Amino acid sequence: MNRFPKLFTGLVLGVLIQAQSASAADASAVERGRYLVNTILACGNCHTPKAADGQPIAGKELSGAGLSFNAPFFAGAASNITPDRETGIGNWNDDELKRAITQGLRPDHGRLASVPLAPMMWVAFYKAMTPGDLNAVVAYLRSVPAVRHEVPLSEYKRQMPRQPYPDAEKGFTEVDQQSPVRRGAYLVTIGHCMECHTPAKDGKTLYEQALGKGGKRYGPGLVKGYPADWSGSVSRNITSHPEAGIGRWTDAEIKRAITQGISRDGHPLKPPMGFSWYAGLKDADLDAIVAWLRTLPALE
Ligand code: HEC
Ligand code: HEC
């Protein structure tokens, strides 16, 4: 007769313990997502609106139009990716969000239903995220405050260029996280460093021939959202070449350039690289990035 209450208490306890460990797992996913989104992924570099001085506006995180673009094939701003139901992604489920981030496909409902995302949303790199990291990013996006902020509808002018990134195609595993060089390769991939640091010819970035050689031009004509005095910049050679690249730089000098935007000779580096986001990278992750950069064959 008194077996039932015991069994019942056991059941309730079991469910409670399970619920508790599930919410602990959720909390650690949100923390991991917060770390990735606000450091190496720098989603806010495009998605968080900026004040006139180029600084992100507090309380408006990820609510859209941090940067807007005007390319021959596309004109539009980075979307509101807060959980607001009308102007953000509050009505998207987790799978829809993951598909947008890793494949560039919008769900078949809501604003611009089923219209593919422009390539400035770097899905060819984000697809390399491990399932755990992708879950973490989604958990974090769900946890940020919903901000009502209507971003104008994007305009698609002609066929959009898309190009795969070799390391993202090969993919990464959780085991890769344990070797510094492999973890560095992973971080550099999801951070799309080489998209900027590799030259392009006829609209194609030369990943196979000139990885890390630099020479891509950025100017205010294509991108809006940086301080008015930004006149553009050219990405640098970050291969191991002793003169043209960073072969002679110390680890500390490379880390200072990435996290503080200061070049080896002390001069300040300009946007669009997200130095202030990278400032939050853990030292072990920065070491991993440097370890991988050192493996890049020297290019003149
Ligand atoms: C280089 C700028 C840039 C970065 C960095 C960036 N995005 Fe985007 N993102 C965009 C642009 C531009 C669009 C809108 C594309 C369009 O309208 O076709 C977009 C669209 C999206 C959408 C679709 C939302 C909608 O309503 O259509 C999601 C989701 C998204 N981004 C998530 C992210 C996440 C998560 C990150 C970080 C991993 C990120 N983005 C990093 C530029 C960026
Ligand atoms: C959105 C494009 C972009 C991304 C993404 C980017 N960079 Fe850069 N990076 C640049 C540009 C442009 C410069 C040169 C800025 C200048 O000269 O003022 C630069 C400068 C540097 C420098 C300093 C080189 C020198 O000679 O002063 C290093 C090192 C560097 N980047 C490494 C990285 C790493 C590592 C990543 C990924 C974590 C990364 N960059 C991501 C565009 C980018």
Structure overview:
The structure is a single chain. The protein has two domains: 135 residues, no CATH class; 138 residues, no CATH class. Helices cover 39% and strands 6% of the residues. A four-stranded antiparallel beta sheet has the order 3-2-1-7, with no helix packed on it. Strands 4-5 form a two-stranded antiparallel sheet. Strands 6-8 form a two-stranded antiparallel sheet. A hairpin with a 3-residue loop joins strand 1 and strand 2. Helix 1 packs across helix 5 and helix 7 packs across helix 12. The longest helix has 36 residues. Bound molecules: heme C (2 copies).
Provide a compact summary of the structure.
With 300 residues, this protein is of the alpha+beta class. The chain has helices spanning 3-38, 43-47, 94-103, 123-126, 131-143, 166-170, 180-190, 193-197, 207-210, 251-260, 275-278, 283-293; strands at residues 68-70, 74-77, 155-156, 200-201, 204-205, 217-218, 223-224, 233-234.
